């Protein structure tokens, strides 16, 4: 009787142990696979949202710096890939999904005219900054909108989903929800200003200027209200090696004037 009980105990201990070992095995295998995939690949995957000229936009197939993609960010990312001896691959996705994509390893980095914000810093590491921007207002020529104050009430205000401009219009200016339209792309928002569906679009300066020019619209600035924002590259948290390489490339491109040249070339 006593023997039988001990035997049962021993058996169940063995069963629990082997289950634990199996579970351990599975976990280890998963990690190894991932590491093998990450370590041996010779492509660097840049995530972006290519509706943001002059930083990233789509041209004809094969006519961009990388496939159909062109712009300041594409040029910078290409330098980074070159430095790493990798081939640059571009994943065009919703801007809103970029931080999560970096965080989960779906992409290696997000290069997307992305403003450094405390919120985003909780999920990703940012490189050194490479461009200073601010929000501007894109309006029809002759509009009565002359300052940020003028859009607080009674105007149909467009913003782009997930952009910093959305937070500024919603939280800082306190524009009523009923007056805000959130669109997926700056290009569409600006079209709506052109056809009168919106009175104004609040968007990043360089992009606002580029889109206004293309569409015969005007840009209104208000530096007292719209503070400067800094663009940086979003990287997975804690990847010191990659952060250093990216910062080295940015430092080189700043020191030799390449970034400035790119800004001129694409504007
Ligand atoms: N700078 C703004 C932000 O970080 C807008 C960036 C949009 N970039 C893009 N590639 N669509 O929210």
Automatic annotation (TrEMBL):
<keyword id="KW-0732">Signal</keyword>
<dbReference type="InterPro" id="IPR001638">
    <property type="entry name" value="Solute-binding_3/MltF_N"/>
</dbReference>
<dbReference type="GO" id="GO:0015276">
    <property type="term" value="F:ligand-gated monoatomic ion channel activity"/>
</dbReference>
<feature type="signal peptide">
    <location>
        <begin position="1"/>
        <end position="23"/>
    </location>
</feature>
<feature type="domain" description="Solute-binding protein family 3/N-terminal">
    <location>
        <begin position="43"/>
        <end position="267"/>
    </location>
</feature>
<protein>
    <submittedName>
        <fullName>Transporter substrate-binding domain-containing protein</fullName>
    </submittedName>
</protein>
<dbReference type="Pfam" id="PF00497">
    <property type="entry name" value="SBP_bac_3"/>
</dbReference>
<feature type="domain" description="Ionotropic glutamate receptor C-terminal">
    <location>
        <begin position="43"/>
        <end position="267"/>
    </location>
</feature>
<dbReference type="InterPro" id="IPR001320">
    <property type="entry name" value="Iontro_rcpt_C"/>
</dbReference>
<dbReference type="GO" id="GO:0016020">
    <property type="term" value="C:membrane"/>
</dbReference>
């Amino acid at each position: 009787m006593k023997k039988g009980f001990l035997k049962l105990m021993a058996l169940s201990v063995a069963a629990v142990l082997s289950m634990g070992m199996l579970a351990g095995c599975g976990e280890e295998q998963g990690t190894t696979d991932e590491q093998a995939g990450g370590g041996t690949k010779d492509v660097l995957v840049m995530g972006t949202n290519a509706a943001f000229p002059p930083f990233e936009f789509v041209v004809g197939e094969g006519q961009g710096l990388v496939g159909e993609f062109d712009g300041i960010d594409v040029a910078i990312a290409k330098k980074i890939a070159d430095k790493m001896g990798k081939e640059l691959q571009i994943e065009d996705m919703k801007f809103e999904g970029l931080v999560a994509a970096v965080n989960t390893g779906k992409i290696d980095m997000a290069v997307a005219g992305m403003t450094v914000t405390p919120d985003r810093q909780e999920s990703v590491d940012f490189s050194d900054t490479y461009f200073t921007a601010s929000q501007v207002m894109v309006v029809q020529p002759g509009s009565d909108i002359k300052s940020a104050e003028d859009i607080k009430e009674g105007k149909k205000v467009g913003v782009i989903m997930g952009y910093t401009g959305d937070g500024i219009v919603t939280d800082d200016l306190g524009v009523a929800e009923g007056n805000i339209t959130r669109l997926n792309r700056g290009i569409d928002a600006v079209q709506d200003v052109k056809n009168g569906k919106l009175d104004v679009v609040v968007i990043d300066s360089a992009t606002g200027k580029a889109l206004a020019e293309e569409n015969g619209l005007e840009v209104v600035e208000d530096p007292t209200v719209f503070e400067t924002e800094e663009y940086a590259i979003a990287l997975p948290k804690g990847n010191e090696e990659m952060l250093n390489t990216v910062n080295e490339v940015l430092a080189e491109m700043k020191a030799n004037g390449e970034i400035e040249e790119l800004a001129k070339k694409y504007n």
